[in-house]
Amino acid sequence: MAAAFDLETLVAAVAAEGGPFNLSGAVLHPDGFENVVLETTDGWMLRFPRLENLPFERELAILDRVAGRLPAQTPRVEFIGGRTRFLAYRKLTGAWFDREAYLEATPEHRDVLAASLAAFLVAMHAELSADEVASIGIPAVNHRLPVRAVLKGMGRLPREYRPVAESLLERYAATWTAGTIPGPRVVLHNDFHTWNMVFAPPGPVWKLDGIWDFSCVQVGEPTFDLRYLDKSPRDLLDRVAGHYETLTGRRVDPDAAVVASRMEQFVDALDTGRFEILDAASASWELADSGC
Predict the structure, then answer these.
(1) Burial, 25: exposed, middle or buried (Cβ in 10 Å; 0-12, 13-18, 19+)?
(2) pTM of the complete model
């Protein structure tokens, strides 16, 4: 694992490996939750896991299995660090998601994008067999862990946020912990949000062209893979859900996906002690629930 995650330390670590990288002018992308990324001027993406227990080898195995088998580009690992743990792949290029442009797009153009996202999920959810899941060691999502985290952190939660927590716990209990979410359980990408994607061509008709970050892959209900589309905006989540149901004949629950997303945001606030971010989050939840 890297000794530190600043630009100078990571450039030195890569240089020590003697890889085929031009490190002059490399740019650090430090905002990832699981990984820090170093982007080189000659088109390499070098990803360093932040935590010792991050399933680095498992992600390598998954990337190897899905290469060329999904309806979007995925990273093809061409170099693995020997002294420092990192993987390197050629940058996936394309257009970034533009929320405002999406909102201005016609329903037909929105559906083109949503259909491409649903098609990826359909393929991802069917790609790995039960034997492959077992041999790679892909774990199942434990939906009770967020509840435990919130209950454990209630004593630290300022009084004004407790009604929000109680309401969220009630909604989460009625869906995820109650086991009422439609299945079957499938292999989830589990980090399916637009910041992990590129699209082609750039507007007004977008299609998913590339997706990365397979470090969170787990087994769970298809609905769980929709949760990070909650703010993309909600219209996109609903359209993807509709196309997914049409393609598979399986039901998904967009409202339950939203509850799962909000529960994660709440747990993140508890973990970091940054309760002030709940002000903006709860305000956005109220706005969304009002239909705006």
Answers:
(1) exposed
(2) 0.94
